[in-house]
TrEMBL record:
PANTHER family per UniProt: ACREF/ENVCD OPERON REPRESSOR-RELATED (PTHR43479), ACREF_ENVCD OPERON REPRESSOR-RELATED (PTHR43479:SF11)
Key words, A-Z: DNA-binding
Pfam families noted in UniProt: TetR_N
Organism: Acididesulfobacter guangdongensis
InterPro entries registered for this protein in UniProt: DNA-bd_HTH_TetR-type_CS (IPR023772), Homeodomain-like_sf (IPR009057), HTH-type_Tx_Regulator (IPR050624), HTH_TetR (IPR001647)
Molecular functions per Gene Ontology: DNA binding
DNA-binding region(s), chain positions: 32-51
Name this protein carries in UniProt: TetR/AcrR family transcriptional regulator
Residue span, HTH tetR-type domain: 9-69
Length: 197
């Protein structure tokens, strides 16, 4: 039998899951607390028991998504793998999230976070992106990848897989993302590697 704390945590997670889904589908401004309550199958009062406002829900989702992506990227970057394999793992994991946890990436890529994060950056310009820039800068300094602007290198690493994900979601391509992963990696690696590697 679950404790009150466990039920409360479960309800809070359900509210966050449903809010994320609604923010992706409708946008932040077109989603109300009432919509979140209806989707979560709980009362509006129950929402306010867990959160003070829709903005608080959105900020918590933003922070948890940033943390999820940062932790994933750091785990890969901190591994004992070669630079080439780390880049491959970063790409493969982005494509895997798009397949397995689509709403997380949709939330990261499609929701206008500046609507509720005052003076903030979008997820795609925040800590996870900076983590990748720092990783790539360090790899350049070690001579493991070619020297270039770190923004360009990070956009190269993320932009190609992210654009592929978006055209998959738009049904422009029909094959599973897994079928493209090696080609995407080769494309990114060819842009980042030192010419003779």
């Amino acid at each position: 039998m679950r404790t009150n704390e466990e039920r409360s945590a479960s309800t809070r997670e359900e509210i966050l899951r449903k809010a994320m889904k609604l923010f992706v589908a409708r946008g932040y401004h077109n989603t109300s607390i009432r919509d979140i309550a209806k989707e979560s199958k709980i009362s509006t009062g129950a929402i306010y028991h867990h959160f003070n406002s829709k903005e608080e829900i959105a900020v918590e989702l933003f922070n948890s998504t940033v943390l999820f992506l940062s932790n994933l990227f750091n785990k890969i970057i901190d591994s004992e793998e070669t630079t080439k394999n780390k880049i491959k793992d970063l790409i493969y994991n982005l494509l895997k999230i798009a397949k397995d946890d689509k709403v997380i990436l949709e939330y990261a890529l499609n929701v206008k976070h500046k609507e509720f994060i005052k003076d903030g950056k979008s997820i795609c310009s925040s800590e996870p992106f900076e983590t990748l820039r720092t990783f790539l800068k360090n790899e350049m300094e070690k001579g493991n990848i070619r020297k270039m602007d770190t923004y360009i290198s990070a956009v190269c690493l993320t932009g190609i897989p992210v654009r592929l994900i978006q055209i998959k979601w738009d049904n422009v391509i029909t094959k599973p993302l897994d079928e493209y992963k090696n080609e995407v990696f080769e494309c990114v690696w060819n842009a980042l590697k030192i010419d003779n590697s």
